[in-house]
Specification:
five-stranded antiparallel sheet; mainly beta; 0% helix; five-stranded mixed sheet; 144 residues; elongated; single chain
Length: 144
């Protein structure tokens, strides 16, 4: 059985050397992993694997995907809401829902066609887990 898929697109800022560039990223969610929270007994409970990934040296113009695993170890659904975008860009916020006991992968796609130099992107989410109200995934790369 194929897991449900969620897709979103947002604009974010990237600092390349001393220049500021806008890039586009997309997030997909699929299925699977553990950080943890305790406290409210029937609250959602966020669990993640890695939160950072270095893509290393990349050629300009390629598209690269990185999957970050998110699990809900709680008794209620976990809601991840994408945080606002930088530089005044307006896109609707993305909301991902993880049912109790389930997992998904948040996949961030990087299109390097407009970037050059050291790139660092942070995708941020608000959550409804009272012990982990914020979640951030960081991707770095050297675009040559």
């Amino acid at each position: 059985m194929k897991p449900p898929t969620w897709r979103s697109t947002a604009v974010f800022c990237v600092v390349a050397g001393s220049a500021l560039a806008l890039g586009k990223w997309s997030a997909w969610a699929f299925s699977s992993w553990p950080v943890a929270s305790a406290g409210v007994p029937d609250a959602p409970r966020l669990a993640t694997g890695r939160r950072e990934h270095d893509l290393g040296a990349l050629g300009q113009g390629g598209t690269h995907r990185v999957a970050f695993a998110v699990s809900n170890r709680g008794a209620r659904r976990l809601i991840l809401t994408e945080r606002g975008n930088c530089c005044g860009e307006e896109t609707p916020p993305v909301q991902l829902v993880v049912p109790p006991g389930r997992s998904l992968d948040v996949v961030i796609e990087l299109d390097t066609s407009r970037w050059f130099g050291q790139v660092r992107h942070v995708a941020e989410y608000d959550t409804n887990d009272p012990q982990a109200p914020r979640l951030a995934f960081t991707i770095t790369a050297l675009v040559e």
